[in-house]
Structure formats: C-alpha cells, structure tokens
Design goal:
The complex is a heterodimer.
Chain A (H helix, E strand, L loop, with lengths): L22 H21 L8 H19 L3 H25 L1 E3 L2 E7 L2 E3 L1 H19 L8 H19 L4 H18 L3 H21 L9 H11 L10 H13 L10 H4 L11 H33 L4 H25 L17 H19 L4
Antiparallel strand pairs in A: 1-2, 2-3
Helix pairs in contact in A: 1-2, 1-11, 2-13, 3-4, 3-5, 4-5, 4-6, 4-12, 5-6, 6-12, 9-11, 11-12, 12-13
Chain B lengths: L6 H37 L1 H12 E6 L6 E2 L5 E13 L9 H8 L6 H13 L6 E4 L4 H9 L7 E10 L7 H4 L1 E4 L2 H6 L13 E5 H5 L1 H5 L3 E7 L5 E8 L7 E3 L3 H11 L4 E7 L5 E7 L4 H6 L3 H9 L21 H11 L8 E3 L2 E4 L2 E4 L7 E3 L1 H6 L3 H11 L1 H10 L21 H8 L5 H8 L9 H13 L8 E4 L2 E2 L12 H16 L18 E7 L6 H6 L14 E8 L6 E7 L5 H18 L10 H13 L14
Helix pairs in contact in B: 10-22, 13-15, 13-16, 13-20, 15-18
The chains are: A mainly alpha, B alpha+beta.
Chain lengths: 379, 646
C-alpha cells in the first residue's frame, strides 16, 4: 500500500506525533545504553569522566536525533532514498581518493570537525533505497531475474568500494543488510540458495588462493582466519585476544564476579575492553544473568521492530524497519559471536553499548527511521 | 470510495510470512548465542575461573632466612643481618627514571658511572621489573628515602636478610661464604629449587656453607599476588612465611680459633686442633685469611686481585687442601711400622754417624756429626734420621704405608669442607700406578722421614696425633648439633696396633718436649697436669745438592721465603689423659721446633685453659715475650654475644 492510498488525516500531525512513538522501543534502547554506561564506568576503573560521560552526551544527542527523525513523514524518506544512496556512493569514492589512512584501511574523510564514515551511512541508505525499490516494484516482478539483478547491483557496487578500502566486515554487513531487505520483500528463496552456494564456493576459492599470485585476501585477514580456527595455536599472538576473552566470559559464571571485580578486565588481560570486548566485561562481572539480560533486551528490541514492521501496511516503512532491525541484529550477533570465539576476531562494536560516536549516531539515525515508520504507519 | 482488492494486500501477507521467517532465523541465532553463553558460563565456568585465576594469580617465593651457624659455645659465627636496599620500577616511575634517580642521588651517593650503568639497565629490562638501585644502606639513608617516598615515584625501600660473618676472617676457610646464584651454579644443580632463581637468594659457594647448603637453606615462603597482564603486582592475596634453615652448631671453638688466627699472625700457616676423645675439630685455621663478608657483598676486583696475587695464598685453605711433606712428624709412623713388623723392639739401637749409604747414594742425617747410638725413644726425641733410614730398609715401604693409613694419613676424612685433600701414603703399587716406575730403596729412605712422596694435610697430621694419643681410630667431625639435636659421638674402635708400641711412640714424643735434649724442649709446658708430648718436623721444599752440601748448607734465613723449609709440629696434651691433638704447619717457616712448636704449644694452652694461656705454664724466659704477644693481639672479648636467632 502506497502512502498516497491511506488516509493522511488519520496519521498524527505536529507535536502530537511524539505520543505515537514506539515508546517501548525508546525505553529498551535507553536501557541497553544504560548498561553500556555502567560497563564503561567499570572498565574505566570507576571513573565516570573517562568514557561513560562522553558516551552519555552522545547518546542524549542520539536520542534527540532519533526523535527528530521520527517526525519526518515517510514521503520525505522515500523521496531522498535515491539521492541519499547516490551521495553515499560518491562519498565512498571520495574516501577512496582522499580518505585518511586509519587502521590500515581508508574508512573516513574529515569534513571540518566531523569525521564522516560513508560506509556506515551507506548501510542506512542502502536499506532506504532497496525498500523504496521494492515498494515501487509490482509484487509479481519481484522474483524475475532482471528485477533481482538490479538490487544485487545496487548492493554490490558500494560493497565493492568498501571491500577495496579494505573493510571486509562492513562489506559483509552491507551484503547481509541488503539481503535481509530482499528476503523480506519476497525474492524467491532459490536466489538465496544460489547465493549461499556461491558464497561457500567463494570462501573455498579464497582459502585456496592463499599463497598464490591471485591471493584474494590480505595476509592479516588470512591470519585472522587461522586464529579463529585455532586460537590456542598462538596463545600469546593473534589468538591471545580470543582466548582471554573466552576466559573472561567463562569465569563470570552464573552471577559474575561483581561490578569492577572482573580480574580479566581490571588487570588488562582483555584488549579493547571499552569497545569491541565490552560484552566480555559485562559477562565477566555480571555473569550469565547479566549477559542474558542484555541479550534479552536486544531480542526485545528486534521483537518490537519486527512487530512494528509486520503490523505496518506501508510496504516501504515495513521494509525499512526490517532492514534496519536486521542490521542491528547482525551487529550484536556478530560482536557476541566474536567474543565468544564463534566467529573470526574482527573489530566490531556492540551496538548501543560500546564506546564510540559514529556507530552510535548511525544506529540512532536508523532507529529514527524505524520510529518514523511507526509514527506514520497507515491507520 | 471502494477500491478493488489491492496487490498490496498480498504484499502485506508476503512480508508477514518473510518477516516471520526472518524472526525465526534471528531467534535461532539468538538461541545459539544463549546456549553458547550457557555452556561457557554455567557448565564450563569452573574451568574458565581457574584459567582466569591462573592468569592473574602468581605465586611469588619468599627467600627463607638462612640457618645460623654457632660455635660449640653458642657464639654466632654465621648470622643474618638486615640489608636495607632500594629498588625502582620504571613503570611506577612514570616511564622516565632519570629525574627520580637525580632526586634519589641527593639522599644517597650515586656516582655518575653508577648512574649511567643504572640507566642502561633500565633501558634493557622490562618496565615492571624492580631494579636494585643501592644495597646495604645505613638505617639513616634508608629512613630518609622512606620519608621522601612521595617525591620518589616508583622507588621502594626494601629490607631483607643477608649473610654476615661476625668473626670475619677467623673462620673464612672452614665456613666458606655465600653469594648470589650464578649460571654456573645452576648448571651444576640438577632440578634446582625455584628459590635459587630469586635475585636476593644467597647460595653457599664454598666450604661449610656450600656442603651444608641443604640443611642451612630452609624452606621458601610463598606470597600469592595478583598481577596484571604486564606482570605488575597489584596486591597481595596471602603470605606464608618461609621456614628458616636449621641452626647448625659446629665443633669449633670460636675463641680458640680467634686465638689461633692471631697467634699465627701474618705467617702462611695452618693449625688444626682436635678433641682426642670425640674427634671434634675445635680449631681449623688457615693463615693468612680474608674477609668472607666482602665476598657476600660482592668483592671489588682490586681486592680480589690482591688476594689472588698474595704470595701467602690467603684464599687457599691450608688445613685440608694444603698437603705437605710431613717431615719428621712422620717418624712415629715408621717407628710403629717397625715395631709392629717386629724388625725392632723398643730397645733396638742403631748407630748414627751422620749419614747412611743406600742404593749407591749417601743419605744424611740432619745433624752433621751424627747422633751416635740411638734407640726408639731417642730416635724421636733427637729426631735422628739415620735411625729411620736403617729401619726403613728393614721394614719396607708397604708396611710403612699400611701404618700411615691406619693412623689416618693418605685417606680423605669426610668433612663438610671444600676440597679435602687425600694426601699420599706411598707404597710400591702407588708409585707403579702413579709414575709407572718401580720403587727404589732411596724412596723408602726419603719416605721414612716424611720426605719424598709422602704428603699429608695438617688435618691428617692432627688426626694421626690424636690416634697415637688415644689408641683409637679417631675421626674428625665438624657438626656438633643441628637444630639443637646433638649429633652422636661415635665410639671410635681401638686401633689395630699393640698398645705397647703406641706407648713407645708416646714416650718418644714426651721426650721430644720434656727430656733435656728434646728437640722441642723450649716449647714444653711446665705445668705437670698439662704435660705435652709432641714431634717437630722440618720438611725441605728443595733438593740439597752434594755441591751445596760441600759448601755448607745455607741456613734458611739466607734463602728467599718461598725456598725455605716448612716448619711442622704435632702434639697432644695432657700426656696422661690426652684431650687435644694439635698440628701446626708454617709454610717456609724454617725449623719446626723454632717456629711451629711455640704456636702449637700456645694454642694447646689456650684450649686447655679455656682462655689466654697462663704465663706460668711456659718456661720463665718466654713469659715476657708471651705477654707482649698477648697484648698485641686483637681478640674478641671472651663474653662475646651469644645470639639465638637472627
């Protein structure tokens, strides 16, 4: 159902929109962020001003952004989906040309005081564009090869640019995020089957390419794979982080070692404990109960998003909500699986909890879209 | 307005179906994560907890206090003292140690060279390793650092125990010393105790300290500490003090040892005094000595070079490592061998014209004109060489060697000291094995007067004397008690020598001292209840050629020090009920009667008196000299502190 078809009069207008926000979602987000603040205090050794305080300011700003975006009607989002995508695409190219070298990869460009990470923005705009595309595309054409090829190209073009930065993690997130939207839009499962089979083939080819002239990944990426497959082979080298993280997690036990009592984090056995490994600190200090509580909150966030999407008759809005919540899901699932040793070590933040501005802002922007979709749902 | 059914409715259903599938997939992943969490945090929690503790909890050893060593009267001869030192950890100093060192240099002297050395070491070592800046600080220095600690980031004043030898050089050779463990030490020890790896640990390097290491070391204590990933200690979880090593009481009398050391003065000499009844070594003193405390603290290369280059070899333990031709002190052995073999009896006489001829060579008696007719007793009291030349030809070397071994020569006495020498009691088989040559009759003649191949340590000579005096197979011992438990005094078996023969030898030794013509009459003890028997010896360290003899043998005084004869003396007292046997060797001292005997006599008097020799125990004409000597001595006061525990 297109937005022109529902009765605009029935949707809330003006300041009254605030009453129609998905309030449970707002509180869940705030709850998760609060857990984050607590953990940031813990890893700073009880100091609030090190990490927790700046993170609180950022979160407050994020909340304002989210609520502000929730007021923006859907026709606007649909309207800017194409320009936003083009902009992000151009920014990605710009990053390739003038980007700062950081962390062995070109990932951001500085525009005055703002450090822009176009690949993060691309995650949102790709979802927007695909949602708009499937909203526009008649349902009977969804699974036609030509109409499947178009979104695939739309996904792979930015993915390719991100991959040559090189940022494998974000590339995967883009493909997965786009895939979720396509999946939700009803593209035939056969295509997914073929893609998964191709992916398996590609992984085999990548592993096969190691040490040859046409090596497809950088050496450090191969080493990361080795480390994942057997972290104990090099316990003081690359596998160190994973092993220490697992020890921290496991030693938390049922109820944890207590706030600021985790030896692994307090004595610096854990790396990057305020960012990528913050879940480990939570699991060590608050145990299974604490870790499951966070996982539960995340699950509730996904649940509320999906409920909002499925009850939304606006196809564009529903697809956006599914796409963004799916990306959010991938974020926390990948981070948790990584620190538990189930996925190769890769720097990925725990959404809403890890210290860091960019990822938080993008997330809140995404949730702003989800809120807008909820507020402006046809009634 | 009615609308036809819109395709959007089917889309809506399609999204619903796909949305639910997606929800299912996501729930599946979340469930997997939850299950993994459960397995790690609930099922394997114990294992991970142990790994976490293993990460963060380290066992640090505490150096145990080394066991004390007492003398037989409870005087501490090896103790432990507080050692104040300061260490600095780079990490705690904020990375740059130089400003801290400069501030510290205002409180304690740190030379520029030392400063450069320290900076170099800090650059090389890990930031969390504490490095010792200064050792053996005075209490004033130590407390001034402690007071100023707030401005000295990373500086830790520490106190530990360090070995100290209150008697300095007196017992240096027998006790040995301790020092830091070297790589060489570790290479010799199989499966070394981990406490040896601690930088402040002190290991017995030589002597009694080394041989009794296991007893003295004690058991290391433990500290459980929490460390961070860099290994820096965060806090102490528990502390269990070590066990001090056993207190060992030696048989040595520190006061007597002190007197013996002072009495020998600067001579290159050795003195051993044995309790005839128990075998207790009451004095075992090598002179000159060195200060073992310098070795504990790290001796300077100049000091060490001085010790090494000293021609009196202060580092050598002459009492057990040094072996000397025993000279005439060996004559009791030859005499007893002759008596036992039955080739002579106490009344047998030989005529001494001043020389004898054997194997085509002429062998001279020390007295150029000869002794005339000599019997067993006078052979000893006059120390007639010809008597023994004649005797040796009748007895044969093998029986002499057998007698020597019965009396404790040519065999290693097991003592907890370093490099205890075996000496040589030569016989035919020995020469064949050692030199691949047949025994010559001349060899027997030389051996009969303790020259030639015969070698004995002062310890062996003291044991020999004790055995002759007691008629028992006395064995020396150094340990009296360990941790208050008295070591059993063995019941020494009776010597396999006819007591009548031993009486002849004793009578001869008595006449050496107490007959009018005895060679050591001057050194006699005139108190009848302490009557002393002894035997002089003068052993040549060079061959006197016939040409030399023809010109007239040069007297010792005219020779360079290291070519002069060794002076030896063995004795025991009291004659009727022997208590102590003493041997004294003065390297290149000249004549045994003139040099060694007075020293042995004075040590004997100190031992018998339990204090300074009474002047009335020596002949009148020597009393003034003795008093003068006593006044010049720096003796430890007789009521030296008797500590029980450090």
């Amino acid at each position: 159902m297109s937005y022109l078809d529902y009765k605009v009069a029935q949707t809330p207008t003006g300041i009254r929109k605030i009453l129609y926000l998905n309030w449970p979602l707002v509180f869940l987000i705030a709850a998760v962020a609060s857990i984050g603040f607590l953990m940031l205090v813990s890893v700073a050794g009880g100091r609030v001003d090190t990490w927790a305080e700046p993170q609180m300011y950022r979160f407050a700003a994020g909340m304002v952004i989210m609520i502000a975006l929730a007021f923006v009607p859907m026709w606007f989002w649909r309207g800017i989906s194409v320009p936003a995508y083009v902009c992000c695409f151009l920014l990605l190219i710009a990053v390739e040309l003038v980007g700062e070298i950081g962390m062995g990869a070109q990932r951001w460009i500085d525009i005055g005081p703002i450090r822009l990470q176009p690949s993060e923005l691309m995650k949102i705009s790709l979802v927007l564009l695909l949602a708009a595309y499937y909203d526009w595309l008649p349902a009977r054409r969804v699974s036609r090869p030509l109409w499947v090829l178009i979104p695939v190209v739309l996904i792979l073009a930015p993915t390719g640019l991100v991959l040559i930065q090189p940022d494998l993690g974000t590339s995967i997130m883009l493909v997965a995020g786009g895939g979720i939207v396509m999946f939700a839009a009803g593209v035939s499962l056969w295509y997914f089957g073929v893609v998964i089979a191709a992916a398996v083939g590609l992984v085999a080819a990548v592993l096969e390419s190691r040490g040859t002239d046409w090596q497809l990944l950088k050496d450090y990426q191969f080493r990361r794979i080795d480390t994942f497959l057997d972290p104990t082979a090099d316990p003081l080298g690359a596998g160190y982080n994973i092993i220490q993280s697992q020890i921290a997690l496991g030693s938390g036990g049922w109820s944890g070692r207590g706030f600021m009592q985790g030896t692994q984090s307090r004595l610096n056995f854990l790396p990057e404990k305020h960012t990528d490994f913050i879940f480990t600190v939570l699991a060590e200090e608050f145990g299974f109960v604490g870790a499951m509580s966070l996982l539960g909150l995340y699950t509730l966030i996904i649940g509320f998003c999906l409920y909002s999407a499925l009850s939304n008759r606006d196809r564009f809005a529903a697809l956006i909500t599914i796409g963004i919540s799916g990306t959010f899901f991938l974020y926390f699932a990948i981070n948790m699986a990584t620190v538990m040793g189930m996925l190769p070590a890769k720097g990925s933040p725990l959404p809403l909890v890890s210290y860091g501005g960019t990822s938080l802002m993008i997330l809140m922007l995404g949730f702003g879209l989800v809120q807008a979709a909820h507020v402006h749902r046809p009634r | 307005m009615t609308k036809p059914p819109r395709p959007g409715d089917t889309n809506g259903r399609s999204i619903t179906r796909r949305g639910l599938m997606l929800a299912g997939l996501q729930l599946g992943v979340i469930t997997t994560l939850a299950l993994k969490l459960r397995s790690m945090q609930v099922e394997q929690a114990e294992e991970y907890r142990m790994l976490a503790d293993g990460n963060s909890i380290k066992i640090r050893l505490l150096v145990p206090a080394r066991g004390l060593i007492h003398d037989r009267n409870g005087i501490v001869i090896a103790g432990n003292e507080q050692n104040y030192r300061v260490t600095l950890t780079r990490e705690e100093a904020g990375g740059d140690v130089e400003p801290v060192l400069r501030r510290l240099a205002r409180l304690i002297p740190i030379s520029d060279a030392r400063m450069a050395e320290l900076l170099d070491e800090f650059a090389k070592r890990s930031a969390v390793t504490p490095i010792v800046l200064a050792d053996r600080l005075t209490w004033e220095q130590f407390s001034s650092i402690a007071v100023n600690a707030p401005s000295l980031a990373g500086v830790t004043p520490e106190s530990g125990l360090s070995r100290v030898y209150p008697r300095a050089g007196d017992l240096a050779h027998v006790l040995g010393y301790v020092g830091p463990v070297s790589d060489y030490d570790l290479s010799k020890i199989e499966d070394p105790d981990p406490v040896l790896m601690l930088p402040e640990f002190q290991l017995g390097k030589v002597g009694f300290e080394a041989r009794m290491e296991d007893v003295l070391r004690g058991k290391a204590g433990q500290r459980r500490v929490e460390v961070n990933s860099a290994g820096r200690e965060m806090r102490q979880l528990s502390r269990q003090e070590g066990e001090q090593g056993a207190t060992v009481q030696m048989t040595i009398d520190a006061q007597l040892q002190n007197y013996a050391a002072q009495r020998m003065g600067t001579e290159s000499a050795a003195a051993v005094a044995i309790d005839v009844q128990t075998g207790d070594i009451v004095t075992i003193c090598s002179s000159p000595s060195f200060d073992p405390n310098k070795f504990v603290r790290g001796i300077s290369s100049a000091d060490y070079k001085a010790l090494m280059n000293h021609d009196h070899r202060p580092l050598a333990d002459k009492t057990v490592q040094g072996v000397y031709p025993p000279g005439s002190t060996f004559k009791m052995v030859t005499l007893l061998a002759g008596l036992e073999a039955g080739v002579i009896n106490a009344g047998s006489r030989f005529y001494c014209p001043g020389y004898t001829t054997a194997g085509g060579r002429r062998f001279h008696c020390w007295r150029k004109g000869g002794h005339g007719t000599v019997d067993a007793v006078t052979s000893l009291s006059h120390s007639c060489d010809v008597y023994y030349y004649e005797l040796a030809q009748k007895v044969g070397i093998d029986r002499i060697a057998a007698m020597a071994r019965k009396l404790g020569l040519g065999q290693r006495h097991e003592l907890p000291m370093s490099a205890v020498a075996e000496g040589i009691a030569p016989d035919r088989a020995w020469k064949q094995a050692r030199h691949g040559q047949a025994w010559q009759v001349g060899d027997s003649l030389n051996a009969s007067i303790g020259q030639g191949y015969v070698l004995a340590s002062p310890l062996q000579l003291a044991v020999m004397t004790a055995r002759i005096a007691s008629g028992r197979e006395v064995s020396p011992r150094l340990v009296r008690a360990i941790d208050g438990v008295q070591q059993p005094v063995p019941e020494f078996p009776v010597l396999d020598i006819d007591p009548a023969f031993l009486r002849v030898a004793r009578l001869g030794m008595d006449e050496v001292m107490n007959s009018d013509s005895g060679t050591a009459r001057r050194s006699r003890i005139i108190r009848e209840d302490w009557r002393m028997a002894g035997k002089t010896g003068t052993s040549q360290v060079r061959n006197i050629t016939a040409a030399e003899r023809a010109r007239g043998v040069v007297s010792n005084d005219q020779l360079p020090w290291n070519r002069r004869d060794h002076a030896l003396f063995v004795c025991y007292a009291p004659y009727d009920a022997p208590r102590y046997a003493i041997s004294v060797v003065v390297e290149h001292g000249g004549g045994g009667s003139a040099v060694a005997a007075p020293i042995a006599r004075d040590i004997m008097l100190f031992a018998l008196n339990g204090g300074l020799p009474p002047l009335d125990a020596v002949p009148d004409d020597q009393r003034a000299a003795m008093e003068e000597r006593h006044n010049a001595m720096h003796l430890f006061p007789p009521d030296a502190p008797r500590l029980t525990r450090a």
